[in-house]
Amino acid sequence: MRQRLPAIVSLLVVGGALAGLPFTLSGYHVGLAAQVGIFFVAVLGLNILTGYTGQISIGHGAFMAIGGYTTAVMSQDHHTNLVLTMLMAFAICFVVGLLVGLPALRLSGVYLALATFALAVSVPQLPLKWSKFLGGRDGVQTSKTVSHLWLYGAAWTASAILFVLAWLILRGRVGRAFRAVRDSEIAAVASGIELPVYKTLAFGISAAYAGVAGSLFVLATNGFAEPSEFGVVLSLQILVGAAVAGLGSLWGVLAGAAFVGLLPAVSSSVPVIGSDHGRDVVFGSAVVLVMLLLPDGFAGLFARVRRFARA
Amino acid sequence: MATLESFRPRLRDRAALGGVVPPVSLLLVAGAAGLLVGSLRSEVFAQLTVQGLALGAVYGGLALALVLVYRATHVVNFAQGELAMATTYVAYQLIHWGLSYWEAFFATLAIAFVLGLVLEVALVRPVQHRSVIAAVIVTVGLFILIDGVVNWIWGGDFKYMQSPFGTKVYSVGGVSIARLYPGMLGVVVISVLLVWALFRFTKLGLGMRAAALRPAESALVGVRVDWMLAIGWGLAAVLGAVAGLMAEPSQFVLEPTLMQPILVYAFAAAVLGGLDSPAGAVVGGLAIGVSLNLVVQYVPSISSELQAPFAFAVLVAVLLLKPSGLFGHREVRRV
Q1: For testing the chain A interface, which of B77, B137, B320 should be mutated: the one with the most A CBs within 10 Å?
Q2: Of A7 and A202, which is predicted with more confidence?
C-alpha cells in the first residue's frame, strides 16, 4: 500500500484538477481540454497495442472513423442516445479490431506498419462509395449537438473509466501476456502464451478505445462525421501521441495527449507562427525533436526525474 | 586479400533479378500478352493501358525510392511521398523564377539529392538502430513537418505548371494517345535505368550495395558505410523527385496532397515486387498502375473512390500469401 501511495495521490490530484478545470476556463478552453481528453482515450488505446504488446499501428484513425460514423449514423437515423452510441462504437470497433488483428497476426514490424497505414488511407474512402448510407463527402450529422461542457464531462469520464479498465487489464494475467509477446514472441510461446489469442485481443481492445475516441471526436466537430476529418494525419497524430507519451507507460499518456491536443492550438496563437500551417511545422519539428532527444518519451523523462530526485 | 571488387559476385544474386522463379516470369509474360491482345481489340483498353503504364511508372519510381531506403537503412520512409511533393514545389518555384522546365527539372534533382542526404545524416542516423517504431515515428514527424512547410510557403491552393510534353496527341494504329503518357513513362524509365547503371557498373554503386547488404564486411575493406547509406537516401530523394515531377502533369494541378494516394500505391507496388527488390518495385509499380486503371473501368462495383482500398487489398493479400513479394527474398530471422 505504501508503494502505491504516490500513485494514488497523483491520481487524486490529476482527477481533482480535471474536475475543477471547467469552472475556471472559458468555453473555448474547455473545448480544448475536451480535445485533450479525446486524444487521451485514443493514445491510451494505441499504447495498449503498441506500447504493451509491441504491435505498431498507423491505422487507428480508421477505427476512430468507424466509431465516429457509428455515433453519427445511429443518432441521425435512429435518434439513439449519444452515450449509448459510444458504447456501440466500443463494441463495434472491438469486433472490427479483432477482425483486423487476424491478418495482422502474420505481419510484424515494418510490414504491419505498411498494412495499417494503407488501412488508414482506405477507410475514409468508403463513405464516398456508399454515399447513400454514409453521406458521401458531406458526411453525416448527429441529430443532437452538445455543448463544450457536456463534451468535456463525457471525454474525461470516458478517459477515467477506460484508464481504470486499462490498468485492470494490464496489471494481471493478460497484461503479463501482452508484455511477454512484446519482449520476445518466442519466449512467450515457450511459456505457454497463445500468440494469436493475445495479439488479436490487444488489437480488439485498442480498436475499441479508438472507437470511443472517434465518437467523441465527431461530437466535438458539431456532430459531423466527414471523410476529410479522419485523414491519414489523424492516425499519425495518435501514433505520435503514443510515442511521445512513452510506449508502455500509462502515466505518460496524459503528456502525450496534451502534446497532440494542445501543441497545434497553442502554437497557432503565437504571433510569428500565426498561420494555420505554421503549427504543422512546429508540430512536425517537435515530434522529430522529441524522438531524437527523449527516446522513451515523457514517461522516460518522468522516470529520469524521479531517479534524480531520489539520488 | 579481400577487396571491394570481391563482393561483386556475392552481391549480384541479391541485387539483380536473380530470384525470379519460373511461375513469376510466366505470370508476367501472360500479363503482358493479355494487355497486348486487349489493346489490339479495343481502343479504350489500349488508351487505359498506356495511361496505366505511365502512372505505374510513377508509382514504380516512388516504390524504388522506398526500396532503396529500405535496403540501405531498413527504414520505411513514410515521408518519401511528401518529400517528392516538396521537391515538385521547388521545381514550380524555379520555373516561376524564369527557368525553363528542363533546367528546373535538373536543378530540382540536385536539390533533392542534397535534401535526402541531409535528412539521413541529421534525423535518421540517430534513431536507425533504436527500433522500427522509433524510425517510423521520425519519418512520420517528417511527413507532418514537410506538409506544414509546403503549406506555409506556398499555401494549400492549386498551382499550375506548364506541361513538359505539350498537348500533342499521337495516333498509333488508329488509337490516339496523348504525348504526355509516353513522355512520363520515358522519363521515369530512363531515370531508373541510370540508377541501375550506377549501382551495377560504378565503384560507388558497388560500395553502396556492399554497405547496404553486408555493412560489417564492407567496412573492413574500407567502404565508408555511413556515407554510402546517406548517398542512398539522396538517390532515393532524386527518384522521388522524378516521380513527383512526373505525377504533377498527370494530375494537372499541384497541391500539397499530390503524393498521398500515390504513396499508398507505391507501398503496394513495393510490397508486390518484394520490399528488398529494386526491379520488383518497378515491375510492381507498372502492374499496380495498369490494374488500377483497368479495374476501375471494367469492374462495375469498383469505382474510382475504391482505388486506395483496392491497393490496400493487394498489399494485404500479398503480405498474407507471399510476404516476400514477386522478386523479394524471404526474410530469415535469427532466433
Answers
A1: B137
A2: A202
